[in-house]
Design goal:
The protein is α/β, with parallel strands linked by helices. The chain is built from 15 helices and 12 strands. Helix 6 links the parallel strand 6 and strand 7. The longest helix is centred in the middle third of the chain and has 17 residues.
């Protein structure tokens, strides 16, 4: 089976082989009796914050860089990123021995900029709009002599790389009824949906968004962008990694066909509470976006969904853990 996004389960398997070739290992699945009891079902937390570079983004970036021919790779790679994709691309580029430039919004947390530079990226700042990100990245690619642009989510190779999460879930957790996936531009949720549709078609893939994104309405209306003017801006959320308002065209092609129509939305207070729970119950440090699905598991909306569909075994993707100490302390010490 395939979605109309130039990506198949075969593409995901190729990505998995490329990840194995560089020594990447499947991320662990964490359990908590407290989370199970509170959520009312068996919960399996896929620890992508323990992936190389601190997020799931390493999967897609590695697959994209590995897929470049030698001549293209030699010119280097460029991306725009809110932080995690940039660090991932820098690491993948360093492993292949090619230069990397990352364009980041000026609002990007310092810890994430430091993480990108740590892996060898040349960082260029821009205004925090989608148009500024795209235009600056295009200019940098041209200045490098035609470097390959690796989009953070609107790229079939990136989707295939993120889809390896779904491959691991299908192999490790055949009992799953559903998986909760954080959503921003849609690369991860689209990739996971394609993989699970092929391997475990009965598993519900449920998107989790920061409050205000409105993906559920987009799915209901079969319309990727509801407000083109607003789409250029960023969501107002503490989850800095997932402020993109609309899914990209490539992940939308998969998501619009394969996602569960129910979308769970969580607000900043729920995210902060989930970050505290991750720290106290799971003994894990996660960034706000990484706490999104845990917040959803503990929400009244999930309880209603669980009861309606008799969900007994549910995975949740903990997508990232890149956060500076000051921000971590601020979030876990405040809130309801």
């Amino acid at each position: 089976p395939r979605a109309d996004c130039n990506m198949t389960i075969s593409s995901v398997r190729v990505a998995a082989e490329r990840l194995r070739a560089v020594g990447a290992r499947p991320t662990p699945v964490l359990r908590s009796d407290w989370v199970d009891a509170t959520a009312g079902c068996a919960c399996y937390l896929k620890a992508e914050h323990l992936q190389r570079t601190g997020s799931f983004k390493y999967r897609g970036a590695t697959n994209a860089v590995a897929g470049l021919d030698a001549a293209s790779a030699a010119l280097g790679v460029v991306c725009h990123s809110s932080g995690n994709h940039g660090a991932a691309l820098a690491a993948a580029a360093a492993e292949r021995g090619v230069p990397c430039c990352v364009v980041v919004p000026r609002t990007t947390p310092g810890a994430k900029i430091d993480n990108m530079r740590r892996y060898g990226a040349r960082v260029v700042l821009c205004e925090p709009t989608q148009s500024a990100r795209s235009e600056t990245a295009a200019a940098e690619a041209a200045a490098m002599g035609g470097a390959a642009f690796v989009h953070p989510y609107d790229d079939a190779a990136v989707l295939a790389g993120q889809g390896t999460i779904g491959l691991e879930l299908a192999e490790e957790l055949p009992q799953l009824d559903a998986v909760l996936v954080p959503v921003s531009g849609g690369g991860m949720v689209g990739g996971i949906a394609v993989a699970l549709h092929a391997l475990r078609p009965g598993v519900r893939v449920i998107a989790v968004e920061p409050k205000g994104k409105g993906l559920g309405r987009c799915l209901a209306l079969s319309q990727r962008v509801l407000d083109p003017e607003a789409a250029n801006g960023a969501l107002d959320t503490i989850a800095d990694a997932i402020r993109t308002k609309c899914l990209g065209p490539t992940p939308w092609a998969a998501a619009s066909q394969l996602l569960d129509p129910a979308v769970l939305s969580v607000d900043d207070d729920q995210i902060r509470a989930a970050m505290r729970i991750a720290l106290l119950e799971l003994k894990q440090v996660v960034e706000p976006a990484g706490a999104l699905t845990l917040a959803a598991l503990l929400s009244p909306a999930f309880k209603q969904l669980r009861e309606e569909h008799q969900l007994r075994h549910v995975a949740a993707i903990v997508c990232g853990g890149n956060i500076d100490l000051e921000t971590l302390f601020l979030h876990v010490r405040t809130g309801p």
